[in-house]
Every structure is written in structure tokens, then in C-alpha cells.
Write a structure and sequence with these properties.
The protein is mainly alpha-helical. It has one domain: Hypothetical Protein Ta1238, Chain: A. Helices cover 58% and strands 6% of the residues. It has five helices and four strands; from the N terminus they run ββαααβααβ. The strands form two sheets. It has a two-stranded antiparallel sheet with strand order 1-2. Strand 1 and strand 2 form a beta hairpin.
């Protein structure tokens, strides 16, 4: 099987179900950004500091792949695809709560940086927020399961807290924003 089909050479692609849409369609931008986020989560999982979190980060990647399928599925398509479930969001909340017990209370805004692994996490957080904004915009014209944007919202919070945890584990001070 060849990886290229040339079907998209004219600027269109097909949703799951066969409907052709522009590659600039908001739905394509949404699941493309989720795919970008998945790649950054992979990069984050590959950091030595996260070796003991790799299973959790891979589970997130699997959920993002499911999310991409949900977003790529055309309205009223008769395809069976996996779905997100409420416990996926709860797992992120539980992880956030565990990290919150370990790190100092947040008293300042924190600037991204301090270590390459932390910076990768902050980039993932930003891409996650962008994906969430795109999905919310998509809900104005398309029915999307609310677990999709709830998961993205909670995931960005988890990524922020993961960066705080990495600061602690790497014994690197967080960089506090200093107002003028």
C-alpha cells in the first residue's frame, strides 16, 4: 500500500464517511491540532524525567487519537469509532490533584522555561489550549461530544501541573513573572 494517494493534491481531504472538505476546514484544523498535540505529548513522554509517567502519557496519546477520530467523523456517519468516557477526564483530575499535593501552592504567574523538558511541556500546554479553542469554535456549527473539549480543558491544566512537578523533580526553580 502506498502512503500517498494524490487525492489531496487539489486542497481537499475526506472525513470519515467520505465527505470531501477543504483542508482549511475548521474540522481539519481541529483534528490536525489534536494530532500536533499528540506529537508534543510523545516528545514529553520521551523525556527521561517522565519515564515513570510514560504509561499515563501514552494513555493520553491514545485518548487524543480517539479524539482525532471523533473530530474526523462526518455528521450522521454510520461508522463505529471509539469514544472518550467520563473516567478519562476524571483520570486527569486525579493526576492534577496528586501533583497539587506535591508542589508548593501557586503564588505567582510562571513563565515557561527553565529546562528543555519543562519547555516541551509548556509548548504542549499551549497547543492543547489552541486545540480547545478550535474545537469550541467547531461546536458553533457542528455537534461535538462535550467530553472532547472537557478533556482538552483538563489536559491543559494537567500539563501545567506536570511542568510544575518537573520543576520540583529536576530541582529547578520556577521562573516567576515579574510585573513592571
Amino acid at each position: 500500500m502506498k502512503i500517498y494517494t494524490k487525492a489531496g493534491d487539489k486542497g481537499t481531504t475526506s472525513l470519515i464517511g467520505g465527505t470531501k472538505v477543504s483542508k482549511a476546514d475548521l474540522r481539519i484544523d481541529s483534528y490536525g491540532t489534536v494530532d500536533e498535540l499528540n506529537s508534543y505529548i510523545g516528545l514529553l513522554a520521551d523525556q527521561p524525567i517522565n519515564i515513570h509517567r510514560i504509561d499515563f502519557l501514552r494513555a493520553i496519546q491514545n485518548n487524543l487519537f480517539i479524539m482525532g477520530s471523533i473530530l474526523a467523523l462526518e455528521q450522521n456517519a454510520q461508522f463505529k469509532i471509539p469514544s472518550l468516557i467520563a473516567t478519562d477526564v476524571i483520570a486527569l483530575e486525579n493526576a492534577i490533584d496528586e501533583i497539587d499535593k506535591e508542589v508548593e501552592p501557586l503564588r505567582n504567574f510562571i513563565l515557561p522555561g527553565g529546562h528543555q523538558s519543562i519547555s516541551f511541556g509548556q509548548i504542549a500546554r499551549c497547543v492543547c489550549r489552541r486545540a480547545e479553542r478550535l474545537v469550541i469554535a467547531l461546536t458553533h456549527t457542528t455537534e461535538i461530544d462535550e467530553l472532547v473539549y472537557q478533556y482538552l480543558n483538563r489536559l491543559s491544566d494537567y500539563l501545567f501541573m506536570l511542568c510544575r512537578q518537573m520543576h520540583k523533580e529536576l530541582q529547578i526553580n520556577e521562573i516567576h513573572w515579574k510585573s513592571r
